[in-house]
Amino acid sequence: MNTASNALNEQVADRFARRVTARLSAGNDELPYDITERLRAAREQALSKRKAMAPVRQVRTAPAVVHNGRSAALGWGSEGGTWWRALASAVPVMALLVGLVVVNVSQDEYGAAEVAAVDTALLTDDLPPSAYADPGFAQYLKTVSQAPASR
């Protein structure tokens, strides 16, 4: 927050300086040559002092491709990562893991419901469950399903 207010103050000061410079330059044409040269020299001195007093702004580098042997990865250049960047990088991974857990739970519930439906069908059927385990019954079902329907 402090850096944002400093940047805003600098912008306001720069706008004011530009307006003052424009007003001074507007009346410059009516002044004699020696006075305009002294004013120009004074402006150059003021600008050099302003540049000397201005704080050095920290330049942020854009993300860069970092080479590591035969592979490359997207990195943050020479600037070290902050914990906010680490958190922002972890959020998509966490979302993926939560999504996988939700899919796994829903698949388990679906599989359990499917098994329960089969068990319910077996237990409520007219045939006893042991009939389904009999190899002769399996053969009977195959022959019945392959026989042509007669009417």
Give the topology.
Elements: H1 2-26, H2 33-53, E1 64-68, E2 71-75, H3 83-124, H4 129-133, H5 135-146
Antiparallel strand pairs: 1-2
Q: Largest sheet at a glance?
A: 2 strands, antiparallel
Count of individual helical segments: 5
Q: Distance N terminus to C terminus? A: 88 Å
What is the total tally of β strands? 2
Give, in spatial order, the strands making up the sheet with the most strands.
Answer: 1-2
Mean pLDDT: 78
How big is the Rg?
Answer: 41 Å
Oligomer: single chain
Q: What string gives the helices and strands in order? A: HHEEHHH
What structural class is derived from the secondary structure elements?
Answer: mainly alpha
* Total tally of structural domains: 2
The unreliable regions are: none
**Rough outline:** rod-shaped
Helix fraction, binned, reads 55-70%
Strand content: 5-15%
Briefly summarize what is shown.
By secondary structure, the chain is mainly alpha-helical. Helices cover 70% and strands 7% of the residues. The model has no long low-confidence stretch (mean pLDDT 78).
